[in-house]
Every structure is written in C-alpha cells, then in structure tokens.
UniProtKB/TrEMBL annotation:
<dbReference type="Pfam" id="PF01195">
    <property type="entry name" value="Pept_tRNA_hydro"/>
</dbReference>
<dbReference type="InterPro" id="IPR036416">
    <property type="entry name" value="Pept_tRNA_hydro_sf"/>
</dbReference>
<keyword id="KW-0378">Hydrolase</keyword>
<dbReference type="InterPro" id="IPR001328">
    <property type="entry name" value="Pept_tRNA_hydro"/>
</dbReference>
<dbReference type="GO" id="GO:0004045">
    <property type="term" value="F:peptidyl-tRNA hydrolase activity"/>
</dbReference>
<keyword id="KW-0694">RNA-binding</keyword>
<protein>
    <recommendedName>
        <fullName>Peptidyl-tRNA hydrolase</fullName>
    </recommendedName>
</protein>
<dbReference type="GO" id="GO:0000049">
    <property type="term" value="F:tRNA binding"/>
</dbReference>
<keyword id="KW-0820">tRNA-binding</keyword>
Amino acid sequence: MRSIINHLKQNRDFPRLRIGIGRPPGKMDPANFVLRPFTKKEQEELDFTFHRSLEAIRIMTLEGFNKSATFVNTAQSSEMLNR
C-alpha cells in the first residue's frame, strides 16, 4: 500500500477493495496462518471472492463507486457457487 500511495504523490483518496483473512485458530501464529497452504474449502472461498472482486471492479468502472460498494457490502455466500 505504501508503494501505491507514494506513486499517487501521498494521496490516500482512492478506492480499495480489502479482503480479510479471518483469525488464526487457537493460538496459531498469524504469520504461519497466512503463509500456510489453503484448504480446499478456503480455496473455493477465495475463488468466489476473486470473482466477486472482479465484478465489483466492473461495476465501479461502469456505474461508479457507490454502486460497487453496495454490491460488495451485500452479503453473499460462496455456497451459491454450488447452485
């Protein structure tokens, strides 16, 4: 993020899409949690999230930030992939 902000001449006023990682189970070290391979379920959720992210970017480009934010903040489950 610092590199992007520096490239934009210290301007932090740009849209970003943030994807959370959840919390490490138990007392697992956060670095080990994020660096371990994805489980099958996590990979499916990640694929779903990437598809939704691409759609959010498409909406932002064509219809503006507010429509895209509404799309992103509308809860949808990765279980919809199985339908």
